[in-house]
Amino acid sequence: MRLHEQELEIQAxxxxxxxxxxxxxxxxxxxxxxLVPIRFAITQSDSARYRCELGLxxxxxxxxxxxxxxxxFVRRPVENSxxxxxxxxxxxxxxxxxxxxxxxxxxxxxxLGATCDTLIxxxxxxxASDLNEMPENALYVxxxxxxxxxxxxxxxxxxxxxxxxxxxxGHHDELFVNLAIxxxxxxxxxxxIDCSHIVQLDPSIRLIAGYSASGSxxxxxxxxxxxxxxxxxxxxxxxxxxxxxxxxVPPEFHAEYFKSKGxxxxxxxxxxxxxxxxxxxxxxIPSAHSPMLESQEIANAxxxxxxxxxxxxxxxxxxxxxxxxxxxxxxxxxxxPIAMWHHSVLxxxxxxxxVVPDGCFxxxxxxxxxxxxxxxxxxxxxxxxxxxxxxxxxxxxxFYSVANYWEAVGVMTAIKAGVSPNSVRRPVSExxxxxxxxxxxxxxxLAVSTQM
Length: 452
Prior knowledge:
Layout: E1 2-11, H1 19-27, E2 35-45, E3 49-58, E4 85-88, H2 106-113, E5 118-121, H3 123-126, E6 138-140, H4 143-151, E7 155-157, E8 163-169, H5 174-190, E9 194-201, E10 206-211, E11 217-222, H6 224-233, E12 240-248, H7 253-259, H8 269-283, E13 287-292, H9 296-300, H10 311-314, H11 321-328, E14 332-334, E15 345-346, E16 351-357, E17 361-362, H12 363-371, E18 374-378, E19 399-402, H13 405-417, E20 432-439, E21 444-451
Parallel strand pairs: 4-5, 4-16, 5-6, 8-9, 8-12, 10-12, 12-13, 16-18, 18-19
Antiparallel strand pairs: 1-3, 1-11, 2-3, 2-17, 7-14, 7-15, 10-11, 20-21
Helix pairs in contact: 4-12
């Protein structure tokens, strides 16, 4: 089984409802036979064309292809306002100024988490090698599952804890195998995590990092069936899976990455996202990946004092504590439509708003648009994506463009309080007053609008 990225261009769909369906109809005929999409993003758009990136996986019998399409959409029938729940999304591999490095969006997660009852976020936002400082009210959800939540096809159910299966690379250097084992044992004793079983894959799956034409981090995964065989064999013995393996990059990338002071897109995250998207799609379980270093030479190299956003990576050799802590209480993925109605299951109906870096245009943003979920786009979180989100057909009061995450919190607090965010700004805009003059003979109404 193989995962890889494909780039394509489609005609911009007509404005109006059912945008997800229109994009699906434009994209699916372009997918080569025998492949299934697992990831989708629009990297650049205008009124005429959408440039897209599509993660593709070899078709597999484990996936129900009709019901599990990434474009499957179920409109929420209601919005539950009993609680205020928010989604924080920082897409992987797009060079986000905040959250594009090593867990450097974790302070944002803690800030936003203090504003809502539940914050739903994903590994890229909070994973920082040996650190994971997500707030206590956060749900740690793999990116494709977060997307499916907003699309209305899955629900999330809190758990007390998960049984985590650790799958590690059969590294040629025993030092790195021991580092991975010690990291698991440290999590067992320090976090109290249930991870009593480690499987060493030898030969392992192959992850190879690369860059797309847009400059975002992507890659390919080969021999995925080796991992699937392990997951099939141990089915019923685990609730979540933590994967640690080598990611193939040119040797010079390590030094160049740290020397770039944030100018180089993190090359590892994109292919990791492709892998976990596939695992979560095939098995409907929480999953996360951490990279293993290729050699002792790379491990012993001194990067010097690095950009603060990269510092967590510069002081770690195992990189796996963040995923082990996240998976410890990652919520159960509920796919049964009847079970999704249970009061303990959080669905799209329970989501009040989505916070994204400005320009990020993928299925999560599209789903929020179609579901009537409010979207807050943060301009300060610059990235590679070239999309004008304000041009989408939002309902009145659904989309807010803000300068930074401080402002995002202000908008979230206003929404939570039932206060129009614009009412606390000045000047107050004039209201439209529409006068209807009815011709009593013909019953024809003429509308005249004025502003007051």
